[in-house]
Amino acid sequence: MNRKTKKAFILDDKGNVIYEKGGNYNRVQFNLEEAKYFKGNIFIHDHPGASSFSNNDIDVMIRYRMKEMRAIGVDYQGNMHKYIMKSRTPGIYPKGVKISKDYDVVFKGRYSHYEKIYFDGKIQWPEAAIKLGNELWTEVARRNKELIYISEVI
Fold first, then answer.
1. Residues 6 or more apart from 17 whose CB is under 8 A from it?
2. 62 near 85, Cβ under 8 Å?
3. Residue 82, CB half-sphere, CA atoms under 13 Å: how many?
4. Chain-centre distance of CA 43, in angstroms?
5. Chain-centre distance of CA 17, in angstroms?
6. With the C-alpha atoms ordered 59, 65, 68, 72, is the resulting torsion angle positive or negative?
7. Helix (H) / strand (E) containing 45
8. What is the tally of structural domains in the chain?
9. Is the pLDDT of residue 3 over 80?
């Protein structure tokens, strides 16, 4: 899972890979023709450093009506993390604008906490980034009842 480039897969309900694509270190980019595979399917991609979703990940999930978004990555200690975001009721999503607003509010409230404990030497930054991401998406999902967020070490 410690790849130098990102890889993404789109799966159907039965777990069959219906499309896959590679990218660079930061992203896998899809064109409109490829985006047709998103609707109602599961999107899986790797995340360097085992970070949780970006705001853009969830925006794309909602915009293209994916069944769920998953990210998998290996942290600095070799632990594999799996993140899942999905709608509580298939086809029902919150507004992307509301998600972004909630994300920004929660980020502003929590980032300084992790920055402080990092500078105080109480935590390594890779661990802080993982914890911050989990807190962000847990709270965003709590504020948007249509979403379910799951984070696991596997």
1. 9, 10, 11
2. no
3. 8
4. 10
5. 19
6. negative
7. strand 42-46
8. 1
9. no
Domain range for 56 is: 7-153
- End-to-end, the C-alpha distance of the chain in Å comes to 13
Whether residue 58 is predicted with pLDDT greater than 60 in this model: the reply is: yes
* Alpha-carbon gap, residue 25 to 154, rounded angstroms: 23
CB burial class (10 A; 0-12, 13-18, 19+) of residue 90? exposed
The whole-number average pLDDT for the span 39-65 is 92
- At residue 1, the pLDDT reads 46
pLDDT tens per residue across span 71-93: 999 998 999 999 999 999 988 99
Cα 136 to Cα 114: distance, rounded to the nearest angstrom:
12
Confidence at residue 91, expressed as pLDDT on a 0 to 100 scale: 84
Is residue 30 in a domain? yes
**2 domain residue, yes or no:** no
